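ok trying again, last paste got cut off:
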Amino acid sequence: MRLPVTLPAGTARFWVAAVAPSLAVIVGAYLLETHGRTIAAAGLVGAGLAAGAARFLASSRADRRYAKVLEHEVATQTRSLVDSLAATADAERHLRLVMDAVPDAIAVLDRDGRVIDLNESAKRLLAAPPNAGAGRSVFASLEADAAATVRERLAAAFRGEVQRFEVAGRREDGTKGLSAMLYAPVRERGEVTRVLALGRDITDQKHTEHQLQQAEKLSAMGQLVSGVAHEINNPAAIISGFAQTLLLDVVKPEQREMLQMIYDEASRIGRITANLLAFARAGGSQRTLVDLNDIVRRTFALRSYHLTTLNIAVTLELSPAEPKFWADPSELQQMLLNLLINAEQALVSVETPRTIVVRTAASEEDVRLEVADSGPGIAPEIRAKIFDPFFTTKPEGVGTGLGLSICYGIAREHGGRISVDSPAGRGATFVVTLPRDARREGRAVPAAPPSTAAPATGPVTVLVVDDETALRNALLRFLGRRGIEGQGVADGADALRALAERDFDVIISDVRMPGMSGREFLERLRRERPALVARLLFSTGDTFAPETAALIKESGVPTVTKPFDFAELERVIRQIAGEAERRRPMASA
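nice, full thing came through this time. structure:
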């Protein structure tokens, strides 16, 4: 049995060159011996032998040259391939470093939402372990609603549409967060094979935007409230003024009682407008060192009986670390009272047990106040609106929607913040964090009149500058009953004309008036009659307005607030008049 033999091409060439001449010699010798050929046959054999030897030598040299060329080419191609692989690996390493340095999440997804590749930021956004790699599903850290949204957007991206959207999910620390996503289709030969996903955690950004929006709303509302309060204070001051004037007369007891009631209710209107202005937070307030625990105890005492009648149990968990800090105690009390009332209104709709827990805590930097209730909680869809002015879920007539807005404004004015945590069906916890030392210049406080001179006891003349005719008349009638001569004008221009005609011991000027305002009137006095500036007394219904607060602070002029306590106003008038009497001899000397 013969086996087929396959020789390499180089080997075949070798055998053709080396063996063929030998075969020629053997064949020639055989012919010579066997058949007795002529001597020519021997010559033929020799010639064949020489030719074969020549071809063999030539072929051997060619093969060696070919082998060297081939070996050189293989070495060159090998070096080029190794260099290319090294460059590719280096480029991939640099690309990975760049991707991991990008703070935004970058991932490549397949049709099923599995991650083909991702950077370190994407691992954090997906709440994936640090060593997590490809193959993780983007739906793993999403709730059902968010997962449905992502599936829909992913499908649209594989249809070739660029998708921009926001989705809620769990952050790396386990808290809920919000991410802005962009899905861009990746095409190969005209077909979308993958989707490039870019993501950014915008939780803090959204929170900041919300805080700014809230501040803008409160600012706009503050301007509205400031104007309304000013208009309310004027008629309240008129009612209060006439009631106080009539109380100077000898009247029957029942009439006196009614007049006193009118005066008290007018004063109550003034306190209500003051609370509205406190909500507006157009200015700061005076701060002092307060004990948060003491504020909690005193505020709870105001509401404890009412809470008991509603079967609401209140627990005070007060910090033993004496959480003292710089704040306005009345504003803190107002804020805590609003939070207690808010919790109370949430609890009346649930069955017992009804509980409220008030906690305090302190650190080196800030103090913390918590008010937690066992009510129904706050729905997620309205949680972002609860600090909006006039937003309320209560029935008509139950609440105004200002309580939490006032709390927000007070916390902000103290340099702190307020937030709410409300797991579904597990009540709500309001958390207020305030810095320990947030002292700063606050709302301008009406300056006290000079006290170096004794109050004037003799005749006193007063110029009343106010655009409200009824208020001027009420004030002038009261002052007339008290032996003080007065004259009323409507604005600063009329006041300057009156001052040119005669002298007055005291000038009472409203701050906000049509025509020449209180500020302009003061500037004219400083230029034309500087000696009269010391006799000026400002009146206003809104010391919270920025322009009013700035004027009071800059000028140092004593100020009284509407609606007036006429007895206090008379004291201030006589004090300024006494100072004017003291200055006259000095001027004449």
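cool. The chain has a mean pLDDT of 79. Residues 39-101 form the longest helix (63 residues).
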